[in-house]
Amino acid sequence: MGHLIPELDVSDLDRSLAFYVGVVGFTVLYDRPEERFAFLTLDGVHLMLEEAAGPGRRFRTAPLEYPYGRGVNFMIEVAAVDRLHSRVQAAEFTIVIPLEERWYRRNEIENGHRQFVVADPDGYLLRFSTRLGQRPVSA
Length: 139
Fold this sequence. Notes:
Blueprint: E1 7-10, H1 13-24, E2 27-32, E3 37-42, E4 45-51, E5 73-77, H2 81-90, E6 95-106, E7 109-119, E8 125-136
Parallel strand pairs: 1-4, 5-8
Antiparallel strand pairs: 2-3, 3-4, 6-7, 7-8
């Protein structure tokens, strides 16, 4: 398992699973239906979803209001971002940042990503990315 596994409160677990599993391609590794909880995995990425109004323990410091997760976006590396982008568009989810090629400087090199950002059913921002490689920093 990874060292950071986000656990997201969602308004409707079934609707979120339809997005994360049905559209994006995550797999349910395990779930606890009695707690309205699911643990998902995709290409080594792990994510936990739990229905906000469900039973069991919830970690919350303020009331939830749409869009959930304000101020954060989750970068998720996938093998084929173009195919995923097509599926998300076909399912008519809100694309916040269209498919783009971006290069991010890290010291003397740049790391390339083909990426887009989509809002999930509760407004969490997901940045799906496929690596393009590295190049020297241009002058």
